[in-house]
Amino acid sequence: MLQGWIIVGVAFVYLCILFAIAYWGDKRSDEKRSIISNPYIYTLSIAVYCTSWTFYGSVGRAASAGVGFLPIYLGPTLTFIIAWFVLRKIIRISKVNRITSIADFIASRYGKSSYLGGLVTIIAVVGIMPYISLQLRAVSTSFTVLSQYPDIVMPEKLGSVSVFADTAFYVSLFLAAFAILFGTRHIDASEHHEGMVAAIAFESVIKLLAFLAIGIFVTFGIYDGFGDIFSRAQASENLEKLFTIEGAGGYSSWASLTLLSMAAIIFLPRQFQVTVVECVNEAHLRKAAWLFPLYLFLINIFVLPIAFGGLLRFPGGSVNADTFVLTLPMVEHYEGLALFAFIGGLSAATGMIIVATVALSTMVSNDLVMPVLLRLEWLRLSERSDLTGLILSIRRTTIALVLLLGYVYVRLIGESYALVSIGLVSFTAAAQFAPAIIAGIFWKGASRAGAVAGLGAGFMVWAYTLLVPSFARSGWLPESFLSDGPFGITILKPYALFWLEGLDPISHALFWTMVFNIGLLLILSLITSQSVVERSQAVQFVDIFRETSGGLRIWRGSATILEIKQLLARFIGRRRMETSFEKIEQTLERNLPDDSLAGVDVVSIAERQLAGAIGAASARIMVATVVREEMHDIDEMMEILDEASQVIEYSRQLEEKSNQLQIATDDLKAANTRLQELDKLKDGFVSTVSHELRTPLTSIRSFSEIIYDNAEMPKEQEREFLGIIVKESERLSRLIDDILDIAKMESGKLEWQMKVLDPKQVIEEALAATAGLFRQNDKVRLLTDLPDDLPSICVDSDRLVQVLVNLISNAVKFCDTIDGKVWITAKAEKANLQVSVRDNGIGIAPQEHKKVFERFQQVGNPMTEKPKGTGLGLPICVEIIRHFDGEIWVDSQLGNGATFSFYIPLAPDINLSNSDRFSH
Amino acid sequence: MTKSILIVDDEPNIVISLEYIMKNAGFNVVVAYDGEEALEKVKENVPDLVILDVMMPKLDGFEVCKRIRENPAWKSVRIVMLTAKGRDSEREKGLSFGADDYLTKPFSTRDILQRVKEILAQTAKEE
């Protein structure tokens, strides 16, 4: 008699053994004497793949589809054959980057994107939840069936039980406790949960032994070996079709199931957990590559015999084929074996639930909750000194929630769905990760945008073609939703999307999800560009076997070792931080003082360490809070390049400026030299002026004193001396006038009364002013050549007269003493008026030509009796003519007289025509 | 014995005034209007004293002074320099070339006569 309490008791004892093994495993791990570090335990832990779905469901599927159950195990076998190429790479990448989950892996590959990590987590939770429910239901179903012993009654016929009478509920509680105890012992999720793995391996042994026991019992106990069962089955009309592929759902179904399970063995979150995250030693994979297929072979070898045995033993479908493993020993009254079968099923279910919840909790905390919390600034999480407690609480809560949700799902979905369908729905969800990961580790070009779009679209198509229909089947949506499509839109029929008919729902869903997933991944990867982080991660992932330095990292910013240490301590605790820093120092072979700057190598290692605790995406956020200014994307890099080019531009400008400055300095120096020269000139001028003033003054004073002192001087002589005094006084006045004139001209203070004038009038005015000279000196004749129609000029009349008077009086002074002649000519030449004053005197030597226009330079014989000039006459002429935009010069040979000429530009046309009008 | 004085200046009116003063004081007076002429006059008849203007065409007063001092035969010639430039540097320069006195224009006629007399009296004593 199998009382309920016996079953519960045995199950309880079994679970206690699990706890004990897990506790022992963790203890050994703490003592550094790992019990799981060998390929056999590794293989057995991977066998968590075989869930209660395998244990009960394979037989169920074989009973309806014959060899149709096989692809689920063929796929993983194929995957493990090529494990060395794919799995090993994933494991290596995960070890190097301290990957904590499949979400972490994908997020990390695509630029440590927390959004992508979150998306993967959501897909995983939604996709795996039904699978966990499936396990819970298997436990409760098997318990219900077993508890009816010796009767064989299907649970559907018993009606529903209350929550507190439901075994699944208590199992959920137990498993939650287990997962919390052994799945969240430490914060570093990338470290191994050795106790958990040990327990899982133990469970794999139990379920295998249980299944083999049933198989042997059925094959050799009830029947007479394989040959006996198969020949009997073939003999049965109903069972004959199970031996063919057609009976197994056709080739398309085979192919899609094989592909699905190939993906599932790696990409189901729990498989990723045990195969990749919990992998102690990459080398174990080599043995697991053939050990795991062997395990699968063993656990499948008796599937068909049990199925056939069950079908033969329970003809007419009165007993659900999913329960044959349990009901066959029961019907034969082997209660012990039946109990063992129950425990086997329990082990298959619990193993899956434990690993799945731990994996999901890590993902939820690291890739969903923490990134959100860390971004919520009002929480001030990044300022808290110790976050380990918070993270662990999140994980524990997640485990409890996942199990609770799983249980709720069981209660809601109920019995409507076959085990195998739920399992395959989850497989298809997990398969959505395949393109992003496979492309991610073999193709550097796969971009975040592609991964997000592919995953998102694949997930939505999955939900529409598999999840939503499951609701419809459970009666939450109308049947017509499946048969006619939503609102009768046939193109959107969930099982025949875009009118794709003729495939089973799973193949159909797989086809469309992959079309969208792979399609978008490829297209967007090709048309979008990667950020810098993405690119560096892509290179690191794809070239993981080539690269040992941990990938290139474009980097700017700074943090001290102390800051990095404090950051690590907050997430993994002070003691573990210190240990890791000791390791870092050993690896880098240098000391890292607290106040020194953390180089890119230290920060990378620290970030990976942190990633092991909270996931790559969160780790990146946290490291970024300490190491400011990490470069994020191409834009930022371009900015820096921009800055660099700006700096180059600035330095070029600077150079230019400095050149300009140099030029300016040179100019200034030149100007200064010129100023000094001018100053000297001015000094010279002042001293010359004082000399020129003193000279007439000397004569005046001397003669005044002489006359004063010699009262009896003859009258005649006295007059002569007084005459000299008068002349010298005049000279002094002229000199002062000239000096004032030239000073005014130079300083621009002279007022010019510019007017448009007839040159002839001006010349005649000058002639009138000098007429006295010619009257005094009858030896000099004046000859003029002045045309009547000279064009107008724009000048200051008085100044031009001054020039002419100066030139004429010079000519008179220096012309031939016996037959003096002075010629004055004026003519319009081109746009100028040219005036010349010529004398027939001794002339000026060519080397003196320039000198005559300089100040106080008097050329000629000082012995002439003519009044001396001031030495400023010609320089003043130069200034005046220059002001009229003209030029003055001298043509002369010694002994041939001199011709002083100047030209002045004619007045502008309008004035010219005015004057024309006047003259005509 | 009547002392002879050579007056050198390019300003005729100044020469006239000095000539009148010196003749009136009883000196034999010779005049020259530039440096070259002055040296010729010295060669013709070595004067007891030269009144020498600095700013002159051809040879300036400093050069004339230097040439006179270079010739040992003219060792006894006293030189009084005249300049319209009142700077001390000019004065130093003149004295360094061997001038016995240095007067700035416009000078006082009484003053220059006094100086000439003093210098010549001093020479007479030395002899």
What does this structure look like?
The complex is a heterodimer of chains A (920) and B (127). In chain A, strands 2-4-5-7-6 form a five-stranded mixed beta sheet. A two-stranded antiparallel ribbon of chain A has the order 1-3. By secondary structure, chain A is mainly alpha-helical. Chain A is rod-shaped, with a radius of gyration of 57 Å. Chain A starts with a helix and ends with a helix. Mean pLDDT of chain A is 79; it is low at 547-554, 861-866 and 911-920. With 127 residues, chain B is an alpha/beta fold. Chain B has one domain (4-126): 3-Layer(aba) Sandwich (Rossmann fold). In chain B, strand 4, helix 4 (88-96) and strand 5 form a beta-alpha-beta unit. Chain B is globular, with a radius of gyration of 13 Å. The two termini of chain B are 13 Å apart. Chain A binds chain B through residues 687, 690-692, 694-695, 697-703, 705-706, 709-710, 721, 724, 727-728, 862-863, 865, and chain B through 10-14, 16-18, 20-21, 24, 33-34, 55, 57, 84-87, 104-110.
Structural key phrases:
heterodimer, A: 920 residues, mainly alpha, five-stranded mixed beta sheet, two-stranded antiparallel ribbon, 34 helices, rod-shaped, disordered C terminus, B: 127 residues, alpha/beta, Rossmann fold, five-stranded parallel beta sheet, 47% helix, globular
